Amino acid sequence: MSRLAPAIWTLLLVLIWGSVFTLFFFLPSTLGVFRWFLETHPVAAPFALVLVQILFATLVFPCSPLTFSAGVLWGLETGLVYSILATVAASTMTFLISRNVFLGSSRIRNISEKHLTSVHNLISKYSWLSVAVAYANPVFPGSSLGYIFGLSEISLGTFVCGVFIGTIPSQIVIIYGGHIFAKLILDLANLTDIALLSLALLCLVLLRRGIQQVR
Predict the structure, then answer these.
(1) Total structural domains within the chain
(2) Which domain holds residue 108?
(3) How much is the pLDDT for 53?
(4) Quick one: CA dihedral 52, 55, 58, 62, positive or negative?
């Protein structure tokens, strides 16, 4: 039964996200409601994105759909700015929770020293670069990585710098995908946009396979 638990949780998350994705993106009426909210609440909407991503990151939920949503709702340029701010804020929150709460627990500190020594050595050696590489890797759980880095000796400023630099490439791809997807739903896309979206998705798949082969 214990072996089935991860698979059950994975299936549950897929079903939840699949339902949300279908409701949100494939119903033009629903998309219209969200666009109306953005127009009538230009300040509250970005704050809502940041707060939701902080919540998801602290619960170790995948945040990529939120990044995609930013591209759908705000477009490429504005969506990229808001999504990067949300990612940095959520990553900072998980880092601070780990540094100020988890690091004070002797049990968690012993687990960290036993199983994450090699990871901490890499972080100490490469500093912000290790953060940037981790956040550029689509395999890792994004904003929740702050839990790992918070247990190391890296400073908060160095961590935030690495997050900002490392998250930009994947943010651009996912935000652009959401932006083009919204145009497709609204029947405003052209063949060039579709081709660029397909190329971006192909690059993500090839990047993931290449990383898995290296590992």
Answers:
(1) 1
(2) 4-214
(3) 93
(4) negative
